[in-house]
Amino acid sequence: MNSIETFLAAKTYAVAGASARTHKYGYKVFKALLAVGRETYPLNPVTKEIDGHKTYPIIADLPLVPEALSIITPPEVTRQVIDDAIAAGVKHIWMQPGAEHEQASESAREAGINVIDDGSCILVLLALQS
């Protein structure tokens, strides 16, 4: 399996940068993962819920450690999200286009995490699966 197939084979997901604003990619990625039957948790430090799903400020607040994390945040936020993911034990990280942070990617890889940061978009891959 390649890194994307491995990411998509995970059972549990979190979306950092999930948004209640339907035009934002954070909303679209969260809803796309739910639409294909993935157990998915939204991470957002400001919003309380998204379409009836409780949001969590940071990974440590989740009721479980997700296997996979999709990141749709500005690069300066991505760095902290990845530090949190490493500390929590997340196994797979996908930085969506525009969220990439080179040092954070390097740190995650050094921690043994499967990292996707090549500009691939999860929405495209999920659309192909459905």
UniProtKB/TrEMBL annotation:
One Pfam family, short name: CoA_binding_2
SMART domains: CoA_binding
SUPFAM superfamilies: NAD(P)-binding Rossmann-fold domains (SSF51735)
TM ranges: none
Domain CoA-binding: 7-99
Alphabetical list of PANTHER family matching this protein: COA-BINDING DOMAIN-CONTAINING PROTEIN (PTHR33303:SF2), CYTOPLASMIC PROTEIN-RELATED (PTHR33303)
Protein name, UniProt field: CoA-binding domain-containing protein
Organism: Novipirellula herctigrandis
